[in-house]
Design a protein that fits this description.
- By secondary structure, the protein is of the alpha+beta class.
- Helix content is about 20%, strand content about 30%.
- Strands 1, 2, 3, 4, 5, 6 and 7 form a 7-stranded mixed β-sheet that branches.
- β1 and β2 form a beta hairpin.
Length: about 140
């Protein structure tokens, strides 16, 4: 039986304005990178990306694979100092980023599909204004998007 992600038939599709608009909403946090990420068994694939040139990476080096395990807004002020991420190959001091904030995208039956992320190259956190923004106030959902 195909996973919820595969039932959407969205992996490896062309960019779509509705997803790019979501990435731009996340980018409002003032970070140089924002992603709409879908995570399958083997990789993380970026449906929409701002400030990131690659379209996908393997799941083994995926910060997003760890982020989708969260049920709400997840803020990692410095991935290089966070034990969960320091063990990832991308977190071993060669990372192009340090700050990660993500909110989950979920299928109607609550299966995690991947996160909406904002990423910064230096440690930081969200301001109270950024944290309270409607884009983070509830789980993103592909239903009706």
């Amino acid at each position: 039986m195909p996973s919820a992600l595969h039932r959407y038939r969205i992996l490896d599709t062309e960019p779509e304005r509705r997803f790019d608009d979501l990435a731009m909403l996340a980018h409002v946090c003032g970070t140089p990178m924002a992603l709409i990420t879908l995570v399958d068994e083997h990789r993380q694939w970026f449906k929409s990306r701002v400030g990131v040139s690659v379209a996908e990476t393997g799941r083994a080096v995926s910060f997003c694979a760890l982020a989708i395990e969260q049920h709400d807004l997840s803020i990692v002020p410095d991935t290089l100092q966070d034990e969960r991420f320091s063990r990832q190959p991308a977190g071993n001091g060669r990372a192009a980023h340090s700050f990660l904030c993500s909110g989950p995208t979920r299928h109607a039956d609550v299966h995690a599909l991947g996160p909406v992320c904002v990423i910064e190259r230096r440690p930081r956190t969200l301001t109270a204004h950024e944290r309270g923004a409607p884009k983070w106030s509830s789980n993103w959902s592909f239903v009706g998007v």
